[in-house]
Specification:
4 domains; about 675 residues; binds magnesium ion; Rossmann fold; 21 strands; alpha/beta; binds adenosine-5'-diphosphate; OB fold (Dihydrolipoamide Acetyltransferase, E2P); DNA polymerase, domain 1; about 40% helix
Length: about 675
């Protein structure tokens, strides 16, 4: 079985290379063959000077008009070539550090030039372009080049070679029989795997992705159906009664709950007091006020004599929840004794927290996923809430059950996905939807602009900061080996310091900082001790700093719309007017049209649906939505069609063979085991 064989079983992979692979999460042969390319490089259709976007790789056909001499600056060589495109518009090629290339550029030659387009003044320039004959370029255009996420020291070539060897030496069996495959128009698994790594045409790649996405959804849904049957009938091991504390708290809050919040709360109460264990999802857009619902549930649980845990995806968010809960306890004199348990705490602090949890003295426990993964001993854990977090796996449920009876589970999510998809993906949970935002919020003002707008944006931020507000600037995560023109937060923050007056306090935040440092920066930002925070998407989820009123997103074109929408949810949380500026380095029509959706609505569900319509099914290289659905290859947006077909196929299978006892189901059952092992830790059920 390839899921048990180590990659060192391949020729040429020794301990050193294996260690590098292991950094990418690849240990077994199976890990390797499902290490799918992040994207594929394709050569674009040639454009004219007028049609060329900037900041992107473009191809332009043209006649070489003139070639400059080679000049030297700081010991670096440099020459320029002027080319006229078929419309007679001129553009320049700039070539540095390769003086020997000069003889390849001969006046009068017609060729295709491929390089990064930048606009200097009025003119268009291609940096470090490659030159091809039209025939060469056409041939290149037909090829797709796999691009893998890499780590330092490991090249794409090494990954490719290892994958090829693995696929040839260990052909995979197919879990779907030929009849099933033809019914659902699926190519074989071996062919799909081979094609997804080494595509020979776009059409074939589409089929390969279709097969693999279908399979991934199929097993996800199959495992979900099976566990749904188990969890729906779980008895209520922690039965509760209604308590007056919750009503009293609601009466004293400075705001009235929205209708959606009230409904969600009512449904939770009825679950907790009912005959079965709660398994509920609260789906509510960013800023819809999910936290207060979580606090009410924790209060009800505590007054009933049980412990409740609240898990956040990051330590920063957990610490923030702790702080808001503590403030509430003081203000409203609630009978709660919360403890915070974080990986970054000192051993002594952790021991103290653990003692309070084990003795039952603490009745609310706040932390990250470590709360169920590590050996925390609870005295009576009756409720587990996950905030902005992926779902529970079978394994997590088991872990919880082993800690003393199956607790009630409440999952809170802001991931905006269309309702039809939600019903499939969350089929095992009962769902409460909070549709509306609290009434007194001013809608965020948005704009989608090119990078030329940046100076005006800075000026605007400076004014807001002078008025006492705070600002976020978000940059995409830069992976090693990626395009250097992408902005990385550290150098960006440095640059800003010279752009803004010295009184503006600027800090940065990114995923590779230690949790303690991240916590302290977020803490200072919440307290207003930082004016401008440059960050990657680590601040994506949950953070609530109502005084922050401006967010600017660099390279917005690199994010999925749902993710951008969640990001912008970090502003517009207070009484002041908030603004969100999406800067796009690509200004072609398609990109701008997609981003414009954010301009037309602030409703996450609507954005998700429009994004889906616009992208349409079968899009190959869509921007992947990050978030809770950590599928390996499938994308709930782009592959919505496969999702719904897989859902029907699972229904059909389970109708025919509910317990998968038939011989014809044996291969599927076996594969479900491997999939389960493979996926549970990542996410799924
Ligand atoms: P999210 O759903 O994104 O987690 P939060 O729970 O963080 O949103 O709520 C955002 C802000 O809205 C908080 O400051 C919270 O106190 C406030 N809030 C929650 N419910 C209401 C309401 N019904 N009316 C007014 N403000 C509310
Ligand atoms: Mg939240």
């Amino acid at each position: 079985m390839t899921d048990q064989m180590a990659i060192t079983d391949l020729k040429g992979i020794g301990a050193k290379t294996a260690a590098l692979f292991s950094k990418l999460g690849i240990q077994t042969i199976r890990d390797l063959i499902v290490y799918y390319p992040r994207t594929y490089l394709t050569y674009p259709e040639p454009v004219t000077v007028r049609g060329a976007g900037t900041g992107v790789m473009v191809a332009i056909r043209g006649n070489i008009a003139s070639v400059s001499g080679v000049r030297y600056f700081n010991r670096k060589s440099f020459f320029e070539v002027v080319v006229a495109d078929p419309e007679g518009e001129r553009f320049t090629l700039s070539i540095f550090n390769q003086p020997y290339l000069k003889k390849a550029f001969v006046s009068g030659t017609f060729a295709v030039f491929y390089g990064r387009a930048v606009r200097k003044g009025k003119g268009l320039m291609l940096e470090q372009p490659k030159k091809y004959t039209p025939a060469e370029y056409e041939a290149l255009q037909r090829e797709l080049h796999s691009v893998y996420p890499l780590t330092k020291g490991l090249s794409g070539n090494t990954v490719s070679k290892a994958v090829l060897q693995a696929l040839e030496a260990f052909p995979v069996a197919d879990c779907f029989d030929p009849e099933f495959r033809s019914e659902h128009r699926l190519i074989s698994r071996q062919e799909a795997l081979r094609t997804v790594h080494f595509p020979d045409s776009e059409e074939h790649l589409r089929e390969a992705r279709r097969r693999l996405s279908f399979e991934e959804f199929f097993f996800f849904l199959l495992i979900m159906h099976r566990s749904k049957a188990l969890i729906q009938n779980e008895p209520n091991a922690f039965p509760m009664i209604e308590v007056a504390h919750c009503d009293r708290l609601m009466e004293r809050l400075p705001f009235a709950l929205t209708a959606g919040q009230k409904k969600a709360w009512k449904e939770i109460r009825s679950d907790l007091t009912g005959p079965n264990c709660m398994n509920r999802l609260i789906q509510g857009d960013v800023g819809s006020g999910k936290t207060i619902i979580a606090f009410l549930a924790l209060l009800m649980c505590a007054v009933n004599g049980y412990q409740g845990a609240l898990m956040a995806p990051t330590e920063v968010l957990a610490a923030q929840h702790m702080e808001s809960l503590q403030r509430m306890i003081e203000t409203y004199d609630l009978p709660l004794k919360p403890v915070l348990l974080l990986g970054s705490m000192t051993a002594v602090a952790k021991r103290e927290a653990n003692q309070l949890i084990a003795s039952g003295e603490a009745n609310v426990i706040i932390g990250t996923h470590a709360l169920i993964q590590t050996k925390v001993e609870y005295s009576s854990l009756g409720l587990v809430i996950t905030d902005e977090q992926h779902r529970f796996g079978v394994r997590q449920r088991q872990t919880l059950a082993q800690k003393g009876g199956q607790p009630h589970i409440l999952v809170m999510s802001a991931t905006p996905i269309p309702r039809t998809l939600a019903m499939v993906l969350y089929g095992d949970l009962k769902t409460s939807v909070i549709r509306e935002l609290p009434a007194e919020r001013l809608p965020i003002k948005n704009c989608v602009v090119g990078t030329g707008y940046r100076p005006s944006a800075y000026a605007f931020m400076e004014k807001q900061i002078a008025a006492g507000r705070q600002v976020y600037i978000i940059c995409p995560q830069v992976e090693s080996g990626e395009d250097e023109s992408l902005t990385d937060v550290v150098s960006y923050a440095e640059e800003l310091k010279s752009t803004f007056p010295a009184t503006v306090r600027i800090e940065y935040l990114h995923g590779r900082m230690t949790p303690a440092v991240k916590n302290s920066i977020m803490d200072r930002f919440s307290k207003g001790d930082i004016d401008l925070l440059v960050s990657t998407t680590v601040i994506e989820v949950g953070i609530n700093v109502p005084n922050a009123t401006v967010m600017m997103v660099e390279n917005a074109e690199r994010f999925g719309l749902a993710q951008l929408h969640q990001l912008r949810g970090r502003v517009g949380r207070g009484k002041e007017q908030s603004y969100c500026i999406f800067l796009s380095a690509k200004e072609d029509e398609k990109t701008m049209k997609r981003l414009e959706i954010l301009n037309t609505t602030n409703d996450g569900f609507e954005i998700a649906s429009k994004d889906l319509q616009l992208r349409g099914p079968g899009e190959l290289f869509g921007v992947r939505q990050s978030g809770e659905f950590a599928f390996e290859i499938a994308d709930v947006f782009a592959d919505a069609q496969e999702l719904s077909e897989a859902s029907d196929a699972v229904e059909a299978l389970l109708t025919a063979d509910p317990l998968l006892k038939m011989e014809s189901s044996a291969a599927i059952l076996a594969e479900a085991g491997a999939y389960g092992k493979y996926h549970l830790d990542l996410q799924t059920l």
